[in-house]
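Input.
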Amino acid sequence: MPTYTTGGTPVSTGATLEADDVVDVLDDLLENARDGEYGFKACADEVDSAQLKQVFRDRAAACATAATELGRMIERFGGKVDDGGSVSGAMHRGWVHVKGSLGADSALSMLEECERGEDAAVARYRKALKEPLPADVRALVERQAEGAQRNHDQIKALRDQFRSTKG
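Output.
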């Protein structure tokens, strides 16, 4: 049965991943949270709607909070916190800016891009939850997965709302 040390206190976790593997799972989610933060900020910069600017800023702040929580957990398991997001996240943000510079910065366009990002986030959390995580890590990942699903649902509902006003 693996034993992890948290703050100098041994914690027995049962049949779970080794510390390095836990860090790998958390690193993936941290990258995801940072991609979300940067992506929502990019969309807030590109959209004209004051309502959507606020939604995107709120979602960016929630992703930043998730990243901080994940970073703390990574450190607890002996990992080093990376500062950046992923290459695919950078490409996604670049696409948002290209759309904005080409005049395709409609609310609907930005919401569609955000929904794609949230689809990826939900999938990454689902993948993480298939792993035998220590109880405290699982609790964090489950809570954040629920938040990612709420983000997705909110963005999808807004996208549908903006789609119906276009049609």
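The chain has a mean pLDDT of 81.
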